[in-house]
Design brief:
single chain; 160 residues; mainly alpha; Arc Repressor Mutant, subunit A; two-stranded antiparallel sheet; 6 helices; 6% strand; elongated
Length: 160
């Protein structure tokens, strides 16, 4: 082997971590997500449970399969989350009248009261982090991130 085969790359040919957009997106995302997780968990639910509660808020009832399709989680994950929310008294689960093979999931009064409180926490968390941008810059950032998501085929609710 020649000496050139053992040579290490010059430092200038290796990009620094913070030169990547992904680095900055992850840094900000981790900060935003961590702060939100702590606030939501102080109300007795996880972020994933919040996603389920919010999805149920706009409907009288739905079945777990429809819920999974709507938020981009597996049916198994939704079933586990529904079970946890049922145990916490946030959702009720019944058999659909039209087709007795399917469950109907809906919010309990306690779950329905909690959703606006959690939504306000989400709004406040966003304002804390992104409020300085102003409406125009914030809207542009959302537009760019949506465009990237669409181009990459990324969908579903982030729950972790």
């Amino acid at each position: 082997m020649t000496a050139s085969m053992h040579a290490t790359p010059k430092p200038s040919s290796v990009s620094p971590l913070d030169s990547h957009l992904g680095y900055w997106l992850r840094l900000v995302s981790n900060d935003v997500s961590h702060a939100f997780r702590l606030k939501v968990e102080s109300r007795g639910v996880t972020v994933a449970e919040w996603v389920i509660l919010r999805a149920l808020f706009d409907s009288e009832s739905t079945n777990p399969s429809q819920l999974a399709d709507r938020i981009g989680l597996t049916r198994g994950a939704v079933s586990k989350l529904v079970d946890r929310l049922f145990a916490k008294g946030m959702v009720r689960v019944g058999i659909e009248r039209k087709d007795r093979r399917f469950q109907a999931v809906s919010l309990t009064p306690a779950g329905r009261r909690l959703v606006p409180q959690l939504a306000a926490i989400a709004d406040d968390n966003d304002a804390e982090v992104f409020g300085f941008l102003g409406a125009e810059r914030r809207n542009e950032l959302v537009r760019l991130l949506r465009e990237i998501s669409e181009r990459r085929g990324v969908s579903g609710a982030p729950v972790d």
